[in-house]
Amino acid sequence: MRLAHLADLHLGFRQFDRQTPKGTNQREADIAEVFRRAVDDLLEQQPDLIVIAGDIFHSVRPTNAAILFFFRELHRLRTGLPASPIVAIAGEHDTPRSTETGTILRLYEALGVDLAIEEPRRIVYPKLDCGVLAVPHQALAQAERPALRPESGGPTLNVLVSHGVHGGLGEERGTMEYGGAQLSRELLAPEKWNYIALGHYHTAQSVATNAWYSGSLEYLPPNPWGQLQDEAAQRGTRGGRKGKLERTGKGYLLVDVKSARVSFRPITPVRRHLDLPPVQAAGLNAKELDAQIAERVSAAKIDDQIVRLLVWDVDRTVARDLDHAAIREYKARALNFHLDLRRPESQRGAGSVAGAGVRRQTLTETVRDFLGRRPLDAELNRESFVKLGVDYLESVAREESP
Amino acid sequence: MIDKATPSPTAIGRVVATELKPATPHQFHFWTATETTVGIGAIVKVQGAGSTEQGAARVVYGVVTDGFAYSDLATPLHDVVGAEGDPARAADAPTARQEIRYWTAAVLRQTPEEPLQPVPLGQVFLADDADVAQALRMDAFLYSATPTAIPIGLYTSAGREAPVYLDADFLIGPEAAHLNISGVSGLATKTSAVEFLLASIFAHFPPHKGRVAAVCFNVKGPDLCFLDQPGNLSDEDRRRYDRLVVPAQPFERVKLYAPLKADGVNLNTLRTHPDLVGDVEPLTWGLQEVVDYAEVLLNRDDIDAKADAFIDFLRDRVLGRTFDDGFGGTHRVQSFADLDRLFRSIFDGLEITAGGRSDTWRTHHIATMRKVRNRLLNISTRCKGLVTDDGPASDLPWTEFEDRTVYVIDIANVDPLGQDLVFARVVSKLREQLERRELGVDAVVVFVDELNKYAPGDGPDTYVKKMLLDISERGRYLGLVLFGAEQFRSQVHRRVVGNAGTQVFGRMDMDELATPGYQVLTPATKSKLATLPIGELMVRHPHFTQPIFVRFPKPPVLRGRDGVERFPPAADVPFDDAVVRQLVRLDRRIRPNQVKDLIADREQDDVRRALAATRRTRPDDPLAYFRKVLGSRVAAEVPPAAPREHRAVQPLNPISDEPY
């Protein structure tokens, strides 16, 4: 039995201020397009079971376009693969904070999708001799969690679909979203399942031999650049051996449930995320740095792509004197061009006061300065807010001092 | 306590020296009346006549090491002739022959110490409390500003009784450390002596030296299972406790750890009586804990650098990481089951994918890998209950050891391989934590019985032996102190015995006494050692220049055999009853049926895990917590087999345009 494992579609996610000819956000359209391509591939691969492990939409109230688009694609899938059940669970992005908000996901029950939105469901497919325990975010977030175990005496094949954070995954590069329910090996018990399909982490990643995050279909926050580094690191550790699982880019997982053999189905992205080789600007003047930036840009095809160029140790005066006309041109060519200028260590954290010979701020001063500028709700008293923040900081400092 | 108010002494003898048997700086001879209380082991004081350059007369303290009795009879034949060959008539002799009691004593101390001179031919007195303190150089650590005296027993020779102390700096470190006790088995002297000494250490360990705890391995029967229960003490024992100022009560803080049995819920210990089993903490380890000490499993009969290298590889590159086996499989090994899966995948890969043409995988030969696999998976089978396939480990509180607490680890019923593993890991962790100063105490006494088995003088170099050697040689700097016991001292590794600053001897076997290690003892001392009664020991300590005989009171705890009689072990109960019992122990309001309903149809592994979490957390409402960890059941549902409704749903094209 073959299972297709998708997660973190985040349909309706918007980013940057570029629009399509139809007037919708370009990134939103990109994200929809990769899902369409995934559906095309699913129709070709014809899995016996399709699971979507949460975060179908980016928000509880997605755009109408996203709702309609998902309906159309699911309909296409149901029509193309009428015998393949589709199981979907709600992730934390799909879960309303209050029950009165309700959820749009119920709409898709009309298409025969088996949904688990608040409560866990154990769905048995006798034809496949397979049971699926679908555990949405809400079921894991509440005090009394369900037992994530196959049914004793149940079907031969057992699949768990869930959504949450496993261990310290993503901590290294800040690629794990906050707010996910905590998962652990003891909770999941991989040895008791044929396969565990997880959602929430945006890079394809195994947490046990038969337990995988499929990752998202597009590079999405948090820290898409970190996700690229995660992929590079995975390629580095795998060393290009024959028979390795190719996992370049984004896609979904196709799983032979019986043997827990997992293959990655890459989905061609609409546009690429280009992380240009970083520049070390220490000792460079503005012209020299301009030349280096131009060199990096000319070496890559940045048109309509999402680009970042990280420049280390850029003095404030050098940054001011850069060729901003050229930079504007890069920004116009790319869908998004992020020139990430990092100040030298000695100038970092100096807050609003900077420059040679200026005293570095203490942590308390930095926090006070930040809280003093941070946008606040109108009903909050800024003075009390700043005082409270500084008090917290000082109490922690007192506790930690010997 | 030293009694300084002793009556003025009466001389009991006088030093004599002849050309054949002169008095020397280290030995002297003296005679006493025929009727005397002096015996082997008695401490005597020689008061020299006159005065030294400093003014006071020379005083010499000695311990009696040999004794002689003879008369003016020239030869035995004279006596036979005198009695006309009839022994009965010998008693009717009209005159009694002159007899002499003549003693040899080894010098313990001279005052002044310089210049060191032969013992003066002065009067001999029996030593009182203060003399014993002087003779054994106890005054230095007994009367200093920061006393470090630990009572070990009472010197009770010659009708006198005086407390004898060890110096904590030389017993627990850092000057010297470790204690070794040997004696024949079956008299309960070794275990009793260590129990008493631990009580004494806990009562007298000087505050300026910090906090101290003890870790005892119970390797046979119920020996150390009842250290928190009071034993039967006689009035004489209580009087001795008072004299030594050690409380005659069991240990206040005892934490007993025992692995589980193969069923995972019943404890593998003899302390399973319902009234006591609540204090026993389970000891269970997972794969990580085992692999860190995998050398223990491998060095039993084959030391193999290749296997070591492969284990290092597993530890560094495989465990807890996402790992590509090179045959298309990705593994994350966190349990024995995962490990087995990885091995199978590699072997299958070599057999099938590589077509059997290769017998190496990442430079490791298949035979080495098979050996390591067998050893690692073997322990999870042989020590099931100690080693769990998955789930959180239940371990000693490595950062929260408590002051003056005894941690007993009961491995009496564990497979020998498992015993070695427990021993190696516990001692290594203690050393590691003490090095970091993160254990919670400053010094730990580790009591290991059966050193003949763990650190034999001959046989292969096992990991455990290496570890014992390491403690013996380096432990005193860290505060890791070994109290070792064995039956045959001569058969324990010389460096383990030799590094023990304090040596204690119980009743010894004559064969053992005939070995070279006991050559320094006189035949009389050996004879006394061979007949020592229960409760009496011979002690050697760095401050004592000669071995000293002491009596110690019966330990204030229930002996293992008595404990088993008073608290008979409970029979193993079925799984669900064992779970009920453990939960009821946490909260007596829990009804058995509630628990049984909750765990019906649940997998035992899950129940065990939930139980372990509840036991570890000790929540206010144990049942609710247990239920929470166990998780709620999710009922199965089967979607209708009939054609799905979606077929009736029309596509959106007629009513809507492509949204993007």
Give a written overview of the molecule.
Chain A is built from ten helices and 17 strands. Chain A folds into three domains: 2-266, Purple Acid Phosphatase, chain A, domain 2 (4-Layer Sandwich), CATH 3.60.21; 273-347, no CATH class; 363-400, no CATH class. In chain A, helix 1 (26-45) packs parallel to helix 2 (64-80) and helix 9 (363-373) runs antiparallel to helix 10. With 402 residues, chain A is of the alpha/beta class. In chain A, helix 6 (286-299) links the parallel strand 15 (273-280) and strand 16. Chain A has helices at 26-45, 64-80, 137-141, 185-188, 224-238, 286-299, 316-320, 324-333, 363-373, 382-400, and strands at 2-6, 49-53, 86-89, 114-116, 121-125, 130-135, 157-163, 165-166, 182-183, 195-199, 205-208, 211-213, 251-256, 261-266, 273-280, 306-312, 336-341. In chain A, 30% of the residues lie in helices and 21% in strands. Chain A is globular, with a radius of gyration of 24 Å. Chain B has 660 residues and is an alpha/beta fold. Chain B has four domains: 13-86 and 96-135, no CATH class; 163-283 and 398-563, Rossmann fold, CATH 3.40.50.300; 288-382, no CATH class; 573-630, no CATH class. Chain B is 33% helix and 18% strand. Chain B is built from 23 helices and 23 strands. In chain B, helix 20 packs across helix 21. The termini of chain B are far apart. Classes of the chains: A alpha/beta (402), B alpha/beta (660). At the A-B interface, helix 1, helix 2, strand 5, strand 11 and helix 5 of A face strand 14, helix 11, helix 22, helix 23 and strand 23 of B. Strand 5 (121-125) of chain A pairs parallel with strand 23 (636-637) of chain B, so a sheet runs across the interface.
